[in-house]
Amino acid sequence: MLDLAREHGLEGVVAKRIDSTYRPGRHSPVWLKTPLRNNTEVIVIGWVGGAGAAHGGVGSLLLGADDDDDDRSLVYIGHVGTGFTTADRRALRQQLAAIERPTSPLATAAPARDVRGAHWVEPLLVGDVEYREYTGCSLRHPSWKGLRDDKAPDEVDMPGLH
Asked: d(Cα 159, Cα 131) in Å, to the nearest integer?
């Protein structure tokens, strides 16, 4: 069913017990939603500090990719703030502090709401992110899966092109 949903460009599959009823505004354990997820490589271009349990570490990572143009400009594709352990957040902050830079590495500015309080970094690290869809501006529902040491930043294309 998931393969068929992907073929037809659907968000996923909902399965339910045949005798269950629809209850507006309420979640039911007899209705199970299985969304389709995609993976993409991303270039880490910055980070925003964490709050609460993430205090002292990375709250979210700012993400980029090389656009499709001949000049291979670095463009903003969103940010990710889930999928990290507390240890991941602290380790990433230390790693990113070593490659911090004063300005954005992007060819064009990212949305101000996403980069408020940003710490920019040299675009040297490649990560793996799982997401629901790419809107052309940013990843929807991204989740961090980890750093990739087998990919170079110049090998990272826009989501959906690999």
From this structure: 10
Domain range enclosing 16: 1-36
SS3 105: coil
pLDDT digits 0-9 by tens, 45-82: 999 987 776 777 799 999 999 987 767 789 999 999 99
User: Is residue 161 in a domain?
Assistant: no
Return the half-sphere exposure (C-beta side, CA atoms, 13 A cut-off) of residue 57: 15
27 shares a domain with 6? yes
Same domain, yes or no, for 28 and 41? no
* Domains identified in the chain, total number: 2
**78 found inside a domain:** yes
Dump pLDDT digits (tens) for 116-131.
999 999 999 999 999 9
Give phi and psi for 53, each to the nearest 5.
-65, -20
Do residues 13 and 34 touch, judged by C-beta distance below 8 A? yes
Predicted local distance difference test score (pLDDT) of residue 83:
94
DSSP helix/strand/coil, 3 = helix
- pTM summary value: 0.81
CATH number, position 76: 2.40.50.140
